[in-house]
Amino acid sequence: IFFDKEACREAYNLVRDDATEVNWVTFKYNGSTIVPGDQGVDYETFKRKCTDDVRLFGFVRFTTGDAMSKRVKFALITWIGEDVSGLQRAKTGTDKTLVKEVVQNFAKEFVISDHKELDEDYIKNELKKAGGANYDAQTE
């Protein structure tokens, strides 16, 4: 597997940059190369990229917290669709180490193959648990 490191780094930096609207990017397989895939503003659009027949890596920015304390947290999501072959599944973990050469700043990583676990509230809750002050604890 080859990894287009420079192109992927540019995509990663778009999500990290507060000055851009981009909240997520995907890194996808193009033959035997991992390249930047789609990018966007809306998490629902990201979820639609996670179809049963693909595997991809997503780097996603979430804003959690309340009026007192907005926090930006990043998640690295490895999506492996249910129809992905066993061999490809097995290789995904190894490929992820390449992606992590670029994607180094995230609160939590997820490996997901069930659409329910892509739920935004589920991910945000997991990110909250991953550390940092939680000012709205008294309402939970």
Automatic annotation (TrEMBL):
Pfam family, one: Cofilin_ADF
Superkingdom of origin: Eukaryota
SUPFAM superfamilies: Actin depolymerizing proteins
MF-aspect GO terms: actin filament binding
UniProt keywords, alphabetically: Actin-binding, Cytoplasm, Cytoskeleton
SMART domains per record: ADF (SM00102)
Annotated localization: Cytoplasm, Cytoskeleton
Stretches assigned to the ADF-H domain: 1-128
Gene3D superfamilies in the cross-refs: Severin
BP GO terms, sorted: regulation of actin filament polymerization
Major localization class: cytoplasm
A cellular component annotation (GO) from this entry: site of polarized growth
Matches recorded under CDD domains: ADF_coactosin_like
InterPro entries assigned: ADF-H, ADF-H/Gelsolin-like_dom_sf
Xref: PANTHER family: COACTOSIN-LIKE PROTEIN, CORTACTIN AND DREBRIN
UniProt similarity note: Belongs to the actin-binding proteins ADF family. Coactosin subfamily.
Assembly: Interacts with 5-lipoxygenase (ALOX5/5LO) in a calcium-independent manner. Binds to F-actin with a stoichiometry of 1:2.
Known role: Binds to F-actin in a calcium-independent manner. Has no direct effect on actin depolymerization. Acts as a chaperone for ALOX5 (5LO), influencing both its stability and activity in leukotrienes synthesis.
Entry protein name: Coactosin-like protein
Species whose genome carries this gene: Pygoscelis adeliae
